[in-house]
Amino acid sequence: MSLPPLASGPQGPAALRPLLDTVLHALREGARSRGGPLPAGGPQAVAARVRDAVGDVLPQEGDPDALRALVHALAEGSADPADPLCAAHLHCPPLAVATAADLAACVLNPSLDSWDQAPAASELEALVTRALATEAGAADALVTTGGTESNQLALLLARESHGSVRLVCGSNAHHSLTRAAWLLGLPEPVVVPAPRGILDPAALATALAGLTGPLLVAATAGTTDAGLIDPLPEIADLSAHHGARLHIDAAYGGGLLFSDHHRARLTGLDRAHTITLDLHKLGWQPVAAGLLAVHDPHDLHALRHRADYLNADDDTEAGLPDLLGRSLRTTRRPDILKIAVTLKVLGRTGLGSLTDHVCALAQEFARLVRSHPAFELHDRPAISTVLFRPAAASDETVAAVRRTLLLDGRAVLGRARLDGRLWLKATLLNPHTRPGDLAALLNLVEGSTPR
Ligand SMILES: *Cc1c(COP(=O)(O)O)cnc(C)c1O
Q: Which cofactor does the UniProt annotation name (predicted)?
């Protein structure tokens, strides 16, 4: 029997090239058979096509055509964030250059739990995380799988530095924060009202005045539902006044840091003890590309951990970098490579203009909605999210319109409940979207709304 080729080593590139041709061809053909932003027919039709393509999951004899067949099936059945009408979530279309870099990460397979598995990747990670932390006004940053893990780590570091902290967050905060409090066995979080989607500083002041013991205030820079930015300087003042630790979840809004035009809207970010950033949102990275930035690097001592086979004391004393304390994970892929390549290939100007561009698209879409008599706009977009609804429709109709578009495979829109009503949500992250696409999206929604 001939052994399957490896991705790295001297034969790696030659073995990969024809396989990559197969993959790229299958991606193109799969997308062509889908023909829209997501597959038509709903979950049952999609599942049936996948089952057909897969057949026997573990056949007795292997099938070399499975690479083509499964990539084709995945592409045919995907919601493609590169399609302008796929705009539901903070689900970005990844940049080609970041994806190409990620291929190299797969090939070399460095693992960031010990220096002897990642000699160059560990240094690259140290350089890039420090640079990104500086960008956010912090001192260091850990690489995470995304905002959820970053938020969990933020709560863990707070607990380790203050004892059992109580989380105080807005009702607009990401669900992963209260879930992390549950996971870590922290006291029941205090959830402060967020009228119109923004944490209310007066309500926060009242809550803080009535609480004793160590507190962790969590603010949001770019809410998941509406892209709204909490009043960070006021929240930072209140937290400092009450001796509370401050975490800012900038999983979405952190991308504004790259833009000269929008950066000032994150004033106050640098006053947080910890900051969640997520470059698989406004950063155009393939998943995963999360970061947790920390103001005081000493906070990271809480994660120090020894395992003789990875970071023995004598190895560390002899100068081998100790990486295990940079994550709660052990084996860890070099997600930093694609990030580093993107930062350098695009530069601040390139990334900033992508951010500016999607923010401008949101303003343009909001203008279309506002000038259309059949629609109601929630508010001027703060980042690149637009909430809108067919005027005078019931919540049930709004929900049904979204599902109709999904099941027909014609558009992917999200939903958000705000001010007691259900809204359609367009999260615009695709810089290649054109004004004509936005008009087409609105027409589709209008055509799917029963009168
Ligand atoms: C997306 C998001 C998260 C969670 O990030 P994941 O990468 O999905 O884990 C956390 N907070 C906010 C504000 C988000 O928008």
A: pyridoxal 5'-phosphate
- All domains of the chain, ordered by start, with CATH? 12-78 (no CATH), 109-345 (3.40.640.10), 346-448 (3.90.1150.10)
DSSP secondary structure, 27-51, as one string: HHHHHHHH-SSS-TTHHHHHHHHHH
Scan for tokens 């086979």, then name that residue. Answer: 309
pLDDT single digits (tens) 49-93: 999 999 999 999 999 999 999 999 999 999 999 999 999 999 999
Which ligand 1 atom minimizes the distance to the CA of 280? 7
- Give tens-digit pLDDT for 222-234: 999 999 999 999 9
pTM across the whole model: 0.98
d(CA 275, ligand 1 centre) in Å = 12
How many CB atoms are located within 10 Å of the residue 383 CB? 27
* Ligand 1 geometric centre to CA of 148 (Å): 6
1 pLDDT band (50/70/90 cuts)? low
- The pLDDT of 16-24, averaged and rounded, is 98
Give the Cα separation of 197 and 194 in Å (integer).
5
Q: How far is the CA of 252 from the centre of ligand 1 (A)?
A: 7
